[in-house]
């Protein structure tokens, strides 16, 4: 194994452990927040708190998908474009959910986010479809 390969493996390991730690911390925060809202009176959740909670859950999903990407890259030295598109779709979905909390977005921001969602969805569909066509033949 060359020095560059060892360096690359060390960087991947550091990134994977960092992402694991961050994902674990966000997961603990989500569980703590939910327990706090459910156990402490009053037990009624407001819409902003629910949107924040759903945004945190999507953040955990992004972390899990990125960990899967690191694992696959370390094992096969390949990058799965479908997982990258899925992470991007989850991230933009999180942005849309959190957008309600941050206030009213302007029209251009909505157009841009809409175009991004359409582009990512079409890209995911086409790549997924081309993969299933290759598997059939």
Structure summary:
This protein is mainly alpha-helical and 137 residues long.
Description of the structure:
The structure is a single chain. The protein contains 4 helices and no strands. α1 (3-39) runs antiparallel to α2 (47-76), α2 runs antiparallel to α3 (81-102) and α3 runs antiparallel to α4. It is flat. It has one domain. Helix content is 87%, strand content 0%. With 137 residues, it is mostly helical. The two termini are 37 Å apart.
Number of helices: 4
- Computed over alpha carbons, the radius of gyration is 19 Å
Classify the oligomer. Answer: single chain
Distance between the termini: 37 Å
Shape: flat
How large is the share of residues in beta strands?
under 5%
Point out poorly predicted stretches: none
Overall tally of structural domains: 1
Biggest sheet details:
none
Determine the fraction of residues in helical runs and give it as a percent range. Answer: over 70%
H/E element order = HHHH
Structural class: mainly alpha
Strand count: 0
Residue-averaged pLDDT: 84
């Amino acid at each position: 194994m060359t020095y560059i390969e060892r360096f690359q493996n060390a960087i991947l390991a550091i990134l994977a452990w960092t992402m694991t730690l961050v994902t674990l911390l966000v997961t603990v925060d989500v569980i703590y927040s939910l327990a706090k809202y459910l156990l402490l009176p009053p037990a009624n959740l407001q819409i902003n708190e629910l949107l924040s909670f759903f945004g945190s859950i999507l953040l955990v999903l992004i972390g899990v998908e990125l960990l899967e990407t690191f694992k696959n890259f370390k094992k096969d030295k390949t990058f799965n474009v479908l997982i990258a598109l899925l992470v991007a779709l989850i991230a933009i979905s999180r942005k849309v959910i959190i957008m309600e909390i941050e206030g009213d977005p302007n029209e251009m921001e909505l157009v841009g986010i809409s175009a991004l969602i359409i582009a990512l969805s079409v890209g995911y569909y086409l790549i997924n479809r081309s993969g299933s066509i290759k598997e059939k033949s």
